[in-house]
Amino acid sequence: MSRKSKGIDAERELVHKFNNNGWMAVRIAGSGSMKYPSPDILAGNNIKKIAIECKTTKSNNKYLTRKEVNELRQFANIFGVEPWVAVKFTNKDNKNKDWIFLTLEDLKETDKSFVFEYEKAKLLGLSFEELIGV
Amino acid sequence: MSRKSKGIDAERELVHKFNNNGWMAVRIAGSGSMKYPSPDILAGNNIKKIAIECKTTKSNNKYLTRKEVNELRQFANIFGVEPWVAVKFTNKDNKNKDWIFLTLEDLKETDKSFVFEYEKAKLLGLSFEELIGV
């Protein structure tokens, strides 16, 4: 399976989770390739609305480019939603392969990019249930 | 150009209009073919958020199926946005080919579907500028 297909599968999985829990979520067409900033997923209920950048990784850390982070922030500011990064660590050593949700403040800024590590993400991030307030 | 391509072109045109006017708008992936209700476009700014079903027609009236209308209403209720239908009448006789925005209350319900006619849509509907409150 291509990297792109895996990314889409991960996004679809997350959309299902929201839709099965009383929210509505949609995948955005052409995210990452549009001339305008756009997230991977928009999800909302009557209380909360969020824009999500989705990432999966087999390693213990994952990078986001400065452009990805800036565009997510810009989109969220103008549209009027909360920006979140959803990450799934699929490393075999990690027993818990659930999604972890991070705010942009949870990311560690480096010279060229933003990074989050598994151990810190587990501490700082929210689970899906915490995010949706179940 | 296929009917599907024309539909996507129309959606893209509308997304550009929003993004060029201080809003953020995105096309939804797989709208119309997803197992969950989903609109064609989501657009928002910090004040207002809307879900849009896009239609273009060469004739003087256009139908929406009961399923389309119900799903748009359901999505909008749960996500927490306003449901709108955007229609562009491309009939040669119509000098004004701008988009007209209708609420679900503006649609006329028939036995099997919902219909809107050009003359009534012009009277009832909002222009793009009126919709975004320019």
Question: How is this fold's topology laid out?
Answer:
2 copies of one chain form a homodimer.
Chain A: H1 3-19, E1 24-27, E2 41-44, E3 49-57, E4 61-65, H2 66-79, E5 82-89, E6 99-103, E7 108-109, E8 113-117, H3 118-124, H4 128-132
How would you describe what is shown here?
Two copies of one chain form a homodimer. Chain A is α+β, with helices and mostly antiparallel strands. Chain A has a single domain (about 5-130), classed as Trna Endonuclease, Chain: A, domain 1 (3-Layer(aba) Sandwich), CATH 3.40.1350.10. Chain A has four helices and eight strands, in the order αββββαββββαα. Chain A is globular. The relative contact order of chain A is 0.16. The model of chain A has no long low-confidence stretch (mean pLDDT about 90).
Helix percentage range of chain A: 25-40%
Strand count, sense and barrel status of the largest sheet of chain A are: 5 strands, mixed
Shape of chain A: globular
CATH topology of chain A: Trna Endonuclease, Chain: A, domain 1
Rg of chain A, Cα atoms, Å: 14 Å
Return the domain count of chain A. Answer: 1
CATH-level-2 architecture of chain A: 3-Layer(aba) Sandwich
pLDDT averaged over residues of chain A: 90
CATH class of chain A: Alpha Beta
Largest interface: A-B, 27 and 27 residues
In percent terms, what proportion of residues of chain A is strand? 25-35%
Describe the strand arrangement of the main beta sheet of chain A, using strand numbers: 1-2-3-5-6
Determine the N-to-C terminus distance of chain A: 34 Å
Quaternary organisation: homodimer
Point out poorly predicted stretches of chain A: none
Structural class of chain A: alpha+beta
Order of helices and strands of chain A: HEEEEHEEEEHH
